[in-house]
Design a protein that fits this description.
The protein is α/β, with parallel strands linked by helices. The protein has a single domain, classed as Rossmann fold. Strands 3-2-1-4-5-7-6 form a 7-stranded mixed β-sheet. Helix 3 links the parallel strand 1 and strand 2. Helix 1 packs across helix 4. It is globular, with a radius of gyration of 15 Å. The structure holds S-adenosylmethionine. The site of S-adenosylmethionine (SAM) has 20 residues, from helix 1.
């Protein structure tokens, strides 16, 4: 089953699987993002982070493999009277053409073998001093029932990030235990990796 088929099935259900509030870690990093720069959300799904930043005056684009997720994002944006540019694409096929001052990703479950290529693309399209900030389930999430894949190849280690982004300053790459309260999809204690990476 493709990522699109898998995520379309999930997003077909009523409501917003991870809620309509932004991810708490991303929200806490808001001061790192500059409004004058393009803002890109990778694997943004139903749009909770994209809408949050669009409402605060950012020029936001969102990429995702799920057309159903992006349709819900667009409806959500209309309700909030904001615009988010959307593009339905598998990130393995994505060829970045623009530069971005801010790139975020939350719970983007990329296969281990595809991560290095994605990280190279993120690095290549980040503006000087721009930030890549994200939160991902760690391999220790296999011990929790708060959400996320049960396939270890879709879960991350700190080394995945430390071995990439060699042109960047890593302000934070850490595995932490958190309490998630994000819709029906993420509830309870979880093991996540949080990253704050800045292009030199
Ligand atoms: C767990 S959801 C998280 C959605 C959103 N980031 C959030 O936190 O609310 C994972 C998202 O990543 C997207 N995704 C997974 N693999 C992808 C890929 N290879 N290319 C594009 N999107 C992908 C899915 O379609 C889905 O929207």
């Amino acid at each position: 089953m493709s990522q699109q088929e898998f995520w379309n099935q999930k997003f077909l259900r009523d409501g917003y699987l991870y809620g309509r509030k932004p991810n708490a870690f991303i929200e806490s990093c808001s001061s790192n993002f500059k409004k004058a720069h393009r803002f890109l959300c990778l694997g943004e799904g139903e749009g909770r982070n994209a809408i949050y930043f669009a409402k605060r005056g950012f020029e936001v684009a969102a990429l995702d493999a799920s057309d159903i997720g992006l349709k819900k994002l667009e409806e959500f944006a209309k309700e909030e009277d904001v615009y988010v540019k959307t593009r339905c694409i598998d990130l393995n096929e994505w060829i970045p053409k623009k530069k971005y001052g801010s790139i975020i990703a939350t719970y983007l479950h990329m296969y281990k073998e595809d991560r290095e290529a994605l990280f190279e693309k993120i690095d290549s399209c980040l503006k000087e001093n721009g930030f890549f900030i994200g939160e991902f389930f760690s391999i220790n999430q296999l011990n929790y029932e708060s959400g996320g894949p049960k396939d270890i190849n879709l879960l991350y280690t700190v080394d995945d990030f430390n071995n990439s982004f060699l042109n960047c300053t890593k302000h934070k790459v850490e595995e932490v235990e958190v309490e998630l309260d994000e819709g029906n999809g993420h509830q309870g204690k979880a093991s996540v990796i949080r990253v704050i990476i800045q292009k030199n």
